[in-house]
Amino acid sequence: MLPATLREVLDTFALVNDPADRAALLIDFADQFRQVPPHVAEPPFPKERRVPACESEAYVWLVPQADGTANLHFAVENPSGVSAKALASILTSTLSGRTPAEIEQVSPEIVEQIFRQNISMGKGMGLMAMVQAVQALARAARPR
Amino acid sequence: MTAPVESRGYVHGDVLVSTDWVADHVNDPEVRVIESNEDMLLYPSGHIPGAVQVDWTLDLNDQVRRDYLSREAFGALGSRIGITPGTTVVFYGDKNNWWACYAFWVFQLFGHTPARVMDGGRLKWEKEGRPMTREVPKHPATTYRARERQDGPHRAFRNEVLAHVRSRGQLVDVRSPEEYSGARMHMPEYPNEGALRGGHIPGAKSIPWARAINPGDGTFKTAGELGEIYLQEQALKPEDPTIAYCRIGERSSHTWFVLKYLLGFANVRNYDGSWTEWGNLVGAPIEK
């Protein structure tokens, strides 16, 4: 079950069918993207944080909080990485403050639901890899 | 720092303009700057002021058949972006001008010869901190009287490629080395778009398209550096008919541009059917 916050965003995208409107919505999210704060990480970012197959050079962190939830952070090093910034912004705004078990519910299928025809050939794999990286970090942070 | 375009020794160097040149001509009514990208989000997220967008899937391809747009559709496109056959169109875009060269090539099928490519594309313009805007310009529409599409000089079809193979003509495969060898059926990190067989057209030389580019700023290498790759290392002859191909003809339009204009090959065509046609063609010869 996806967290309700993420479901709401997916519902919004489901209602927007015009490619130009979808592009505008994605760019709005990209504009809200905030790079990982310095207290979490500073460049040069370590290789093990890098999302594989993402041409926008995205890095991801999942920081567990004292209350059992976790916060997500991304760095996107390619200034043209608009799609990566949009997805990072959606993921951080809807999944931060959730428990790792909840965050783990996210699946790469959301990429197709969010981007649809706005996805360019090479990007789909990289964007799905961003989601998979979040899943993997959440799984590793889950209490055993 | 890359040397100025005019000092790089290209055979037809006037097809390439610098970011400085474009900055000086953004308000020139005789010039239309056109952005063509792979990534559909880039133009709406910011572009050169005054630039219009031409999208390769929506604007340049027939929406039903696998073919390019008709004369009527090209006329409608030219009218919409407010140009006449005399307007100098300047293409730029993402991915080292990969799609810009593709759009440039399609414009050549319709004989729109006042055409240029902005050296370095989006990457260089952005790196230089030049102005970008989200405002979509409203250029007054024109009535563009398009010429009939002339595929012959620029475009090769499968039967012509087959005849070219039999006569041991020059072929350039611009895909990745893994696609060329048949080890993979698609670009690294791209989905498989469906070819049943892997490998390359017999006799083709493997010269990945991006070897023509300086990766730091997306500019084209000098004529001397390009000559070392295409003429010395791969022993291509500029006077011999040449066909370039890739997967659907987009990466190879970039190499077509390099061979035809920068190195002055006399007869070079782009086989846009490329591997998605050849790798599915019953009985077509394949080398691995």
Structure description:
The complex is a heterodimer of chains A (144) and B (288). Chain A has 144 residues and is mainly α. Chain A has helices at residues 4-15, 19-32, 82-95, 100-103, 109-115, 123-141; strands at 58-64, 70-76. Chain A has a single domain (4-36, 49-141), classed as Sufe protein. Chain: A, CATH 3.90.1010. Chain A is 49% helix and 10% strand. In chain A, a hairpin with a 5-residue loop joins β1 and β2. In chain A, α1 (4-15) packs across α3, α2 crosses α3 (82-95) and α5 (109-115) packs across α6 (123-141). The longest helix of chain A is centred in the C-terminal third of the chain and has 19 residues, at 123-141. The longest helix of chain B is centred in the middle third of the chain and has 16 residues, at 94-109. In chain B, α5 (94-109) packs across α10 (251-262). Chain B folds into two domains: 5-127, Oxidized Rhodanese, domain 1 (3-Layer(aba) Sandwich), CATH 3.40.250; 158-278, Rhodanese-like domain (Oxidized Rhodanese, domain 1, 3-Layer(aba) Sandwich), CATH 3.40.250.10. Chain B is globular, with a radius of gyration of 18 Å. Chain B has eleven helices and nine strands. The model of chain B has no long low-confidence stretch (mean pLDDT 95). With 288 residues, chain B is of the alpha/beta class.
CATH topology of the largest domain in chain B: Oxidized Rhodanese, domain 1
Could you give the count of β-strands of chain B?
9
For the largest beta sheet of chain B, what order do the strands appear in spatially? 1-5-4-2-3
Sheet having the most strands of chain A:
2 strands, antiparallel
What is the number of domains of chain A? 1
CATH-derived topology of chain A: Sufe protein. Chain: A
> Rough shape of chain A?
globular
Short note summarizing the structure:
Helix content of chain A is 49%, strand content 10%. Chain A has 144 residues and is mainly α.
Key descriptive features of the protein:
heterodimer; A: 144 residues; mainly alpha; Sufe protein. Chain: A; two-stranded antiparallel sheet; 2 strands; 49% helix; globular; B: 288 residues; alpha/beta; Oxidized Rhodanese, domain 1; 5-stranded parallel sheet; 11 helices
